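We treat protein structure as text, and this decision shapes the records that our systems exchange. Below, we set out a record of this kind in full and without editing:

***
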Amino acid sequence: MSGTITSFAAVIVVKALGLLESIAVARILGDVQYGLLALVLSATNLVLACGTLGLPAALTKFLSGEASSSRQAAWGTIRRAVRTVLVTSAAAGLVFGIVMFQLLPDYPERSLKSLFVLGAILVAACAPLVLFGNALQGLGRITELNLRAVLAAVAGLAIAIPLCLFLGTLGAIIAFVFGVAFVGATAIPTVRKIARSLPSSTTPDAVSVRSLLNYGLPTLISGLTVLSALYWINSRLALERGFGDLGNFAVAFTLANVITLLSGSIGVPLVPLLSSLSVADPHRGQVVVARVMRMTMFLGAPFVLGGICFSTEIIGLTYGPQFTSGSTFLSILALSSFLASVSGIIGNQIGGAGKMWLGLAINLVWTATVSLASLLLIPAYGGLGASVSILTGYAALCLVAVMVGRSVFQVPISGLGVPAVWAALLLTSAFVAAFFGGVWRIPAGLLVVGAALVSMVLLLSPSERSIIRDVLSMLGFREKTGGGV
């Protein structure tokens, strides 16, 4: 549990610093240039995914299991992954840069093509470094990984502001690439030290490139389906409604993703844990997944309710009044992030069990739903249509993920009924308050959030309250009495 608690604290810090960086960049650039940045970054994420071939996830999997037996197995596996990515990332950057420069539509912003090409080259150059962060996770050094993630967020914030002030959108892209490279670059000495400290073996037990790709390629294709859909949405918004509307949507999307903080913090140590349990104790792994899903619903709901009810105030206080036209986007995307948090727990179970082709099939459901919905809704409704498209996709994804968890992994979902009904009632109340509350919107929203907090404490089990106390203690909010949460 300590890995989860430290991950929770680290993700809070990283998310907070990342949000501050995003706010500072958006306020400096303005809505149009921030929309331009969102489109470029959605493209560079595609380059990064293609360049790494899903091997970061494969390293986490194998270094926590099959390749952890000896020095030769661990380091040999890492070397094979790095050599592969050196070649594929260079090819991805070159091909993507040429293709995008030749085939990119004629956007009003003439600097877009050069930003695309430069972003592709920079990300491709840093792609091999990403592997070492995942290697650190696979070797079980979650605390060291969290520390580097925090340092990367601090350094990224420190350089992003001056770079944006002097270089504009280009400076923001450079800051993004720095954040991608920092964790892996600083993890290299530690990974080498840990690998060399493992027992020696006379047999070469390194995982083959074929095995790495067999695990990584489904992850790659799954990621590409999601990233391609996001790029499609961003590009359609830019073409149909302009970069200003895309900037407002990007702000709402960023704020909504903060809500996935809980599942993200739990997911870091969960994949290695489930990878081990899927072999040693499958029943315990099923119970862990159900428990994490239950707590994710309880602890994530208050954040979602706040995002729905107070979207205008949240955007105005953070990114500024020029972005408040995206407040409706945030209300809708907050709910989609909640569904993503819940379904993401099953995704961790799929990753831990090594059933990556199943994960690909589930992601294809999301991609197909989002693509079809956005094709119909964005031309007519712009950012609102994009938000509804993403919500529709995550609703379908969550439904399929729960069905897979129950039928394939035998996850006991009987205990999820109460939190599911509880969340549904509160979310319905929040949307009523947000869209029909009028002058009573803020008081009604406070009432909904307050009711959620009080009822959550009553519905949590004693063991779940104990876990929350551990988390709060880790974050410095120690109880002064021996009472409840």
